[in-house]
Amino acid sequence: MSMRQKGNRQRIYCIANLIPYGKVATYGQIAKLAGCNPLFVGYALAALLDDSDTPWHRIVNRHGQVSIRNDGKPDANQRIALQQEGVCFNVHDRIDLTKHRWAGPTLDWLVEHGFDPINQEGDT
DNA sequence: TGCGTGACTGCCT
DNA sequence: CAGGCAGCCACGC
To answer: Is the Cβ atom of A53 within 7 Å of strand B at any atom?
Structure first.
């Protein structure tokens, strides 16, 4: 696996790359999958370049809103990119996570890539 | 070589 | 019900 990197960032990127078109994931969701704090997810994505293959624009905060950068305002381009994928924003500039939230990778994928399935909420 | 920065979330008071 | 605090990886200068 190319994910043998000890850094959680590589994991975060790998998971982020799985987010399908028209779907969004939260920092906490990615964090739990990667086995690290949500804070690191933000840190990791902040280091991504605009030309990165990682669909970082599909990752929003737990309020369903576009993340706010150190500029003091959300990246309008992120919202536009999401809207182009069919993601709708509410009156409060929020995404309906109950409709657009990514269900997450399959258990097979987790095992295939050496992730810890036990860490996931496999409750019934 | 060491320190500060950097896109968040959940629990406690 | 709302606000504040703690968590701890990787990169640049």
So the answer is: no
- In this structure, how many other beta carbons lie within 10 angstroms of the beta carbon of residue A8? 17
Residue A123 lies in a domain: no
The answer to whether the beta carbon of residue A69 comes closer than 7 angstroms to any atom of strand B is yes
Domain enclosing residue A86, as ranges: 3-111
pLDDT tens digit sequence for A64-88:
999 888 777 888 899 999 999 999 9
The gap from C-alpha A4 to its chain's centroid, in whole angstroms, comes to 20
Confirm whether any atom of chain B, the nucleic acid strand, is less than 7 Å from CB of A99.
no
Q: Is residue A116 part of a domain?
A: no
Å from the A124 CA to the B4 C1':
43
Report the SS3 class of residue A68.
strand
